[in-house]
C-alpha cells in the first residue's frame, strides 16, 4: 500500500522537473560551447551585470546537465535569474504555454540545474532558505528545488527540512526553514498529504 502511495505521490510531483515548454528555446553561447564545466562556472562567477544573458542561461543549463556539484553555491546565487519570455509571448501567435505553473524552475533555470545535481545541493539550499537576507522569491524557489529533488517521496524532503530546522542555532533561521517545510507539505498530492504533514510534525 505504501509503495502505491509513493508512486502516486511521485506522479504528482513529476511535472515540477519536466522538460521546458517549447516557447523556451535552449540558449546558445558560442563562447562557452565545448568548454569544460570549470570554465562555465568561472563565467557565472563574473559580475552579473556584465554577462551575456544567453551565455548565463547556457552555462546554468549545462552545469545542471553535467550534475556539476562544485557549481552548487554559485547556482544558488542565480535562483532569481529569470528566463526571459520570448517576443510576443502571450499573443495569438505565441500562446501562453509553459511547464507546470508551480515549478519555479521553468522560470528560474538555476532551480532546474540544482534539482538535476540533486541531494548534494541540499545543504546550500537550506542555507539559502534560512538566511534573513534571502528574498521570499528565492526562499520559495529553494524550497521548490528541495521538493523536486525528493519528488519520488516528497515527505522525505520535508523531513530533511524539518531536521535542518531543528539543528539551527538561530531561532529565526529555524523558523524560516520550518515555514518552508510547511509550505512544501501543502503542495503534496492528496494521496501523499498525510505523509507530508506527518513529516512536519517530527
Overview of the molecule:
- The protein has 202 residues and is mostly helical.
- It has one domain.
- It is built from ten helices and no strands.
- It has helices at residues 2-13, 37-44, 53-65, 72-76, 109-117, 122-130, 136-149, 154-167, 171-185, 193-200.
- Helix 7 (136-149) packs across helix 8 (154-167).
- The protein is elongated.
- The chain starts with a helix and ends with a helix.
What does this entry show, briefly?
The chain is mostly helical. The protein is 53% helix and 0% strand. The chain has one domain (2-200).
**What is the N-to-C order of secondary-structure elements (H for helix, E for strand)?**
HHHHHHHHHH
Q: Into which percent range does the helicity of residues fall?
A: 40-55%
What does the main sheet amount to? none
- Average pLDDT over all residues: 85
What descriptive keywords fit this protein?
10 helices; disordered N terminus; mainly alpha
Strand and helix layout:
Layout: H1 2-13, H2 37-44, H3 53-65, H4 72-76, H5 109-117, H6 122-130, H7 136-149, H8 154-167, H9 171-185, H10 193-200
Helix pairs in contact: 2-3, 3-5, 5-7, 6-7, 7-8, 7-9, 8-9, 8-10, 9-10
Amino acid at each position: 500500500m505504501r509503495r502505491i502511495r509513493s508512486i502516486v505521490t511521485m506522479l504528482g510531483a513529476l511535472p515540477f522537473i519536466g522538460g521546458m515548454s517549447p516557447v523556451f528555446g535552449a540558449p546558445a553561447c558560442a563562447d562557452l560551447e565545448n568548454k569544460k564545466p570549470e570554465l562555465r562556472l568561472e563565467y557565472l562567477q563574473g559580475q552579473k551585470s556584465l554577462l551575456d544573458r544567453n551565455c548565463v542561461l547556457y552555462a546554468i543549463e549545462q552545469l545542471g546537465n553535467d550534475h556539476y556539484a562544485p557549481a552548487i553555491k554559485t547556482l544558488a546565487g542565480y535562483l532569481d535569474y529569470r528566463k526571459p519570455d520570448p517576443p510576443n509571448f502571450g499573443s495569438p501567435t505565441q500562446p501562453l504555454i509553459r511547464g507546470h505553473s508551480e515549478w519555479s524552475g521553468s522560470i528560474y533555470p538555476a532551480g532546474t540545474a540544482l534539482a538535476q545535481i540533486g541531494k548534494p545541493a541540499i545543504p546550500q539550499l537550506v542555507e539559502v532558505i534560512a538566511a534573513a537576507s534571502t528574498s521570499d522569491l528565492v526562499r520559495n524557489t529553494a524550497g521548490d528545488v528541495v521538493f523536486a529533488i525528493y519528488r519520488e517521496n516528497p515527505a522525505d524532503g520535508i523531513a530533511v527540512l524539518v531536521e535542518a530546522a531543528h539543528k539551527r542555532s538561530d531561532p529565526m533561521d529555524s523558523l524560516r526553514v520550518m515555514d518552508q517545510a510547511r509550505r512544501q507539505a501543502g503542495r503534496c498530492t492528496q494521496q501523499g498529504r498525510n505523509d507530508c504533514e506527518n513529516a512536519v510534525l517530527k
